[in-house]
Amino acid sequence: MTAKPARRAAAVRERAQTSAALRGAARSPANDAEGTTPLRIRPVRRGDLEAIIALDAHVTGVEKRDYWRAIYKRYGEPSAERKFLVAESGSGVVGFVIGETRDWEFGSPRCGWVFAIDVHPDARLAGIAARLFEAVCAGFRRAGVRKVRTMLDPGNTLVMSFFRSQGMMAGPFIQLEMELE
Ligand SMILES: CC(C)(COP(=O)(O)OP(=O)(O)OC[C@H]1O[C@@H](n2cnc3c(N)ncnc32)[C@H](O)[C@@H]1OP(=O)(O)O)[C@@H](O)C(=O)NCCC(=O)NCCS
Q: Would the pLDDT of 122 be above 90?
């Protein structure tokens, strides 16, 4: 084995060990503030809004209070079509996912769209986004949907790695855009 593959193998091993350790920590009661609360995936509540605004501002560097109020108004009420779920640990809301089913848009039969997923940097690599994604997909399945889609910046390798790890692959559509003067 040359030096490069050996280094890569060591890095993969190290990442797997770190990931396993963090997963264990996330499942361990010692990981939450009270020492008793396991991670829970549940529909969003109005009282979660401040934590979500803060989490998004922390991740993106832009606070979008009005945007999140509007999103809550549109997706906050659980329904078969619209899903807004949070991951809650002993320390509060540590992640969220938003998605909805759409009928015949772009000529496509009904499918599910995931348009936002975020996990607090301190809680990452512990399987939380995977659980959020699984939960939103389970909701889509219950609504009779058999395909899920998303859209992302191909330069965002973190989000790309996550969605690829969940089994998502390039779809048949391309995105077009132009400037409006
Ligand atoms: C992408 C994101 C949601 C992943 O959350 P997470 O809870 O850390 O993800 P998980 O622990 O469930 O990881 C599941 C899989 O995704 C992949 N993955 C996650 N983080 C990764 C990383 N840093 N590097 C490479 N692969 C990664 C892995 O395959 C991982 O499985 P493994 O740990 O068994 O290898 C999180 O990093 C995040 O919020 N990033 C910012 C999101 C963002 O930019 N949002 C704005 C646009 S919507």
A: yes
Count of C-beta atoms within a 10 Å radius of residue 5: 9
Residue with the smallest CA separation from ligand 1 atom 36 is: 119
Ligand 1, atom 3: nearest CA belongs to which residue? 118
CB 31 within 8 A of CB 50: no
Between CA 108 and CA 92 the distance in angstroms is 38
Element (H, E) at 18: helix 3-27
What gap in Å lies between CA 20 and CA 25, rounded to an integer? 9
Atom 48, ligand 1: which residue's CA is nearest?
Answer: 116
Distance 95 CA to ligand 1 centre (A): 11
Q: Which two tokens stand for residue 140?
A: 């889509």
pTM of the model: 0.84
Per residue in 42-93, pLDDT (tens digit) is: 999 999 999 999 999 999 999 999 999 999 999 999 898 999 999 999 989 9
CATH of 3-165 among 3.40.630.30, 3.30.470.20, 3.90.79.10, 3.90.930.50: 3.40.630.30
pLDDT of residue 176: 96
Domain boundaries defined on the chain:
3-165
Return the ligand 1 atom nearest residue 124 CA.
8
